[in-house]
Amino acid sequence: MGETTIERAAKATPPKLARRIRGLSDRAIAWIFVAPTIFLLLAVNIFPLIWTIRLSFTNFRANRPNAEVKWIGLRNYERILTDSDIWLTMQATAHFLFWTIVLQVLLGFALAWFINQKFRGSNFWTTVIVLPMMLSPAVVGNFWTFLYQPQIGLFNYSVAFLTGADPTSFSMIGDTGLAPWAIVIVDTWMWTPFVMLICLAGLRSIPDSIYEAAECDRASKWRQFWTITVPMVLPFLMLAVLFRGIENFKMFDLVVQLTGGGPGNITTLTSIDLKREAFEKWRTGYSSAYAIILFVTVFGLASIYVKALNRVKER
Amino acid sequence: MSAYSVTAPSRRQQWIAGVLVALYAVITLLPLLWIFTTGFKSPSDAIAYPPKLAFEPTLEGYVNLFTTQTRQTEAYLAENPPESWYEEMVHAKGMVIAGPSRFGERFLNSVIIGFGSTFLSVFLGTLAAYAFSRYRVPLKDDLLFFILSTRMMPPIAVAIPIFLMFRSLGLSDTHAGMILLYTAVNLSLSVWLLKGFMDEIPREYEEAALIDGYTRFQAFRKVVLPQAATGIAATAIFCLIFAWNEYAFAVLLTSGTAQTAPPFIPTIIGVGGQDWPAVAAGATLFLLPVMVFTILLRKHLLRGITFGAVRK
């Protein structure tokens, strides 16, 4: 192809004139456009982070702004890492993370696989399934406490109806054995569609020609599933797990409204514990250190995971 | 799909898949349906055993949601006959309406903060995305990664210094403070989504406009913006839904004037325990706009959700 009109015109126009025609220089426009975003993110994200790091070495308490603030070095970190209660909240978080991810991956992948059979009305049902993840976790979580009520709750009634058990014999959010599962169920209800959508994108990215070739080689459907579908969706699935993992590590609103961390401390996830330390006990310095530890944990785990993800993608 | 395709699922397969998906969808919809119907139940129907599917609909939950009520003596009620259907409903319980509840205010706060922060984050996001998409910005990749990484911080961890910062700047419990905060939280998503949309607009259009004597800025406004309109709208909906649903910052940083609906709705309490029909009524009004948006704009929204995965 020859030169386009644009290229010819660009060459014909002397650079100085061109700049005058365009008003500001490209560089200036780029900076004017980007600067407000960077500034706001620095002010509301980075500056607070640095402040948190500084506070984490002090004994500052936000409810006593006039008290003397002492620099206590690594004492806060030391106390957190040797506190057995914190390990209990970590266990609660791990239980929550593990089971929500397992259930959401299994259900989400199955749903995506079924939807990808392109039956009539699949778009309509996809939209219906996606609804829960769009809603406010706090408002919905609060209403689930009603569904979980023994006797009058719809959840207990349905379980009783299906299994024949007495609906008043169990309380999903009042029983220490059941409460960890109560939060897993609601989170799975809410976020399975997210995993499903990402799996669906993965399934749709597989070209038909691969299956056609496999069909020519007389590979069984079962074999096609394990040697084509699963490996090709895996990077997508791993990405969905990453997003869910980060989100659920930060989990606060849904669980606070559902169980408030109880009964006892059985569903006190790290974010809920952190909120108590920071905004109920007002141990600001201590909770800053706590926040930094959580932050480093998420970043560390996420970056190890991303490395693994990239290795899978390269294969 | 051709009739001879070897890879197309069989009729029977499609049928089974359809039934299973529909079954899941119906189960998943039940809690939402329950919120909707509970809003129209009387308090005794709401806590009936077994749970009632058929009931006489009433607006009592909605009346309780929007008003505060106090108990009054028979004599007082007889002296002050009800003037409207809702007063009559309240009088029947031996109560009078003392005034409007705070739900209206809280809902309005959600609207103001939601739309305010959405406008700002889309406005700033559009500018930044355009620059990242079209110009050689120094340290572009680092800046883009920095913008994305701000999304990974747990809200409670950021909330501690923000709480202190807002307190010293006088921004705590103000609309401006919350708008600023939600804008910052949404900006990363907004920049990344919009950059994707802008990358897809052919540069030739703008170049042609520049040759026609438009300045860069005019070309951006009159050529790029109209082309990116759908993408901007989809991004706006995402930002709006986030700000609308946000709870952690709202519950920590607002208590009165600027409190949004999510921290408020769970605190609706009736006489003797939580007033579930009123809570359900509030939840219905609050969740419905998002559901409608989701259904109307499903294509763009679904694209936005899978965005991170599809774009490698």
UniProtKB/TrEMBL annotation, chain A:
Alphabetical UniProt keywords: Membrane, Transmembrane, Transmembrane helix, Transport
Chief site of localization: membrane
Membrane association type: Multi-pass membrane protein
InterPro entries for the chain: MalF_N (IPR035277), MetI-like (IPR000515), MetI-like_sf (IPR035906), Sugar_ABC_transporter (IPR052730)
Domain of life according to the entry: Bacteria
Pfam families named in the record: BPD_transp_1 (PF00528)
PROSITE patterns xrefs: ABC_TM1
Listed PANTHER family: GLUCOSE IMPORT SYSTEM PERMEASE PROTEIN GLCT, TREHALOSE TRANSPORT SYSTEM PERMEASE PROTEIN SUGA
Protein name as annotated: Sugar ABC transporter permease
Automatic annotation (TrEMBL), chain B:
Protein name: Carbohydrate ABC transporter permease
Highest taxon listed in the record's lineage: Bacteria
Cited InterPro entries: BP-dep_ABC_trans_perm, MetI-like, MetI-like_sf
Family listed: Belongs to the binding-protein-dependent transport system permease family.
Residue stretches spanning the membrane: 15-36, 111-131, 143-164, 176-194, 223-244, 276-297
Domain ABC transmembrane type-1: 107-297
Compartment(s) of residence: Cell membrane
Segment forming the signal sequence: none
Keyword check for Transmembrane helix: yes
Major subcellular site: membrane
Pfam families, per the entry: BPD_transp_1
Keywords from the named record: Cell membrane, Membrane, Transmembrane, Transmembrane helix, Transport
CDD domains: TM_PBP2 (cd06261)
Gene3D superfamilies: MetI-like
PANTHER family attached to this UniProt entry: ABC TRANSPORTER PERMEASE PROTEIN (PTHR32243:SF52), MALTOSE TRANSPORT SYSTEM PERMEASE-RELATED (PTHR32243)
PROSITE patterns noted in UniProt: ABC_TM1
Source organism (scientific name): Paralimibaculum aggregatum
Membrane protein topology class: Multi-pass membrane protein
